[in-house]
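Input chain follows. Return structure tokens only.
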Amino acid sequence: MICLSVEQVEEGMVLARPLQHPLQPGVVLLQAGCRLDSRSIGLLPQYNVSRLWVQHADFEDLDRYLNPGVGELRTQLRHHLKGFFAGITSKSGTVDPKNDLALTDDLIKELSTDTQHAVYVARHVDSEDDLAGHSANTAYLSTVLGLWLRGYIVEQRKSVPSSVAMDLSNLVLGAVLHDVGKLGLDRSMQGTHHCDESKCTKDYRDHAERGYRLLHGRIEATASAAVLHHHQRFDGQGFPAIRSRQDDKRAAPLSGRAIHIFPRVVAVANTLDALFCAAHRDGRPLAWALAALQSTEVRSMFDPVVLLTALQCVQPFPVASVVGLSDGRQAVVIEQNADKPCRPAVRTLDGGISTGTRAKEELDLARPGAPTIACQGANRIDQYLYDISPELLRDAAKAGSTQVEAAVTADV
């Protein structure tokens, strides 16, 4: 099967996977095997559907990369968060985060057992209730990053046994609750997830401490740390300011490894989702968001090992997506390239994206002289292509993790 944007869908194509309602878990809009016609295609914008999986005989080998269970859990978590947040804001509501949000453990388990899962950062963007969607996607991205970073997380948590250190449950619980302190603020502020710290309003800057106070005693300390410190910056320019020791004369933001590893992971996931939403709003591709994540002004905010991992595992052109090459051919991404994300391996299509056309040739776009990706659908994207910066690779190497040694050796 292949993954198409709604603009690429043609009449006569057959759905390879059920099309789930983006807001209602368990509700199927179109069943697998449904042959698309003008009426069904016309309904897709009504539900803000961004992509579809359709059958293609020459790409059945890509089916293993899609885990429908992960997508359903993400939808369930988003839906569940609406009720959970309502319970927190209700004066009579009682909440038990660990039990009420047990879906986070299900998400960890599902992703842990599926090592071939292709990361799809896209989500439904609902302007009326963005906080639940953002929180669910930040939890999903934090889970993905945590699984990729388990060795580094164990390195960073030397004070506890490795079996405890690699347990991601508090990371993901903290990620899903990281913005709970925004509840009660106006909608525009709830939908702001990344900003220049020097320009943030006091209400916005206070949301991390507000959330921490709200959850204190209800969740474990490492999960609370993710809530309190997800806006700390690796360069020490974040918030909130705290007194790390009783004898400190004044409060100051944390920096570097003084920040617990869990909020360092959540910080990257939080910003990545914010950049994705900005790209979606402005009609820009995911490649723009990922390139922005390693810009000079943004890069210094994050643990370079976590940031490098995000750029390696969250790909701008996921497996099974259709792209246009610089030589005019259409192709389907069949294998990702962690070190050169914008140069995956592809299988070309002879005659366009119609599911009746035949796959023709496999190309490694990282090889010298290979064509580059030029467009997705009708949109030119060659101006957004990027490489992982040598500066980021060097910063990650200086952080001392064995996890990045291979990438640094290959690229610097």
